[in-house]
Amino acid sequence: MRNRQKAELAAEVMGVSLDGLTSTILGAAYKELIKIHHPDAGGEHEDFIRLQHAKKELITWLDGSSVSGSGATSSSSASSGCVRCGGKGYVRVTRGFTTTTIRCLSCEPKE
Questions:
Q1: CATH of domain 2-80
Q2: What's the average pLDDT block by block, 10 residues per block, for the chain (111 residues)?
């Protein structure tokens, strides 16, 4: 169930719904949002990174949905903590000479 919550959060960031989500819909949403949030287009670096993480999470969700039908992982991987941040709640992302700390989308609680 935890993966569904992560996917829902990522879908919220991307402005899409998990119901009927396809890679085509995800790609189109990503392209539109990147036009706004890419740093070269005047967007904020943190928002850009957040979009990239959300897209990656939804791609993982789509891959898992097509294999298992639910997008859920085994209980052993869910109980071991977040793979991306190790349970810290944040990740450090480095692009070139800039390092940014952002909240982890994989384990960030839904507000």
A1: 1.10.287
A2: 80 90 89 90 90 91 60 37 68 73 65 44
